[in-house]
């Protein structure tokens, strides 16, 4: 997939920004990022479930406790 680009000319860039802000045109750069994030999220969800199935309950509990300590450390 080719990388989406915004216009380099200042006037064309200003017009594209106005078009995006008013909803007349979609932002090609943000549309491209949305597609990548959807796929990355799907892969992340699959990876976590597969890893959790492989771990024994004791190890899974230790990982969860470590994560909870990190989350609550600053609070």
Secondary structure: helix percent = over 70%
Query: Approximately how much beta-strand content do the residues carry?
Result: under 5%
Question: Unreliable segments (pLDDT under 50, ≥5 consecutive)?
Answer: none
Helix and strand sequence = HHH
Mean pLDDT: 79
> How far is the N terminus from the C terminus?
43 Å
How large is the radius of gyration? 21 Å
Derived from helix and strand composition plus strand pairing, the structural class reads mainly alpha
**Basic shape:** elongated
Number of E-type strands: 0
Largest sheet: none
Number of helices: 3
Topology readout:
Layout: H1 10-22, H2 28-54, H3 57-72
Describe it.
It is built from three helices and no strands. With 75 residues, it is an all-alpha fold. The chain is elongated. The mean pLDDT is 79.
List the defining traits of the structure above.
75 residues, mainly alpha, 3 helices, 75% helix, 0% strand, elongated
Short account of what is shown:
The chain has 75 residues and is an all-alpha fold. It has helices at residues 10-22, 28-54, 57-72. The chain has three helices and no strands.
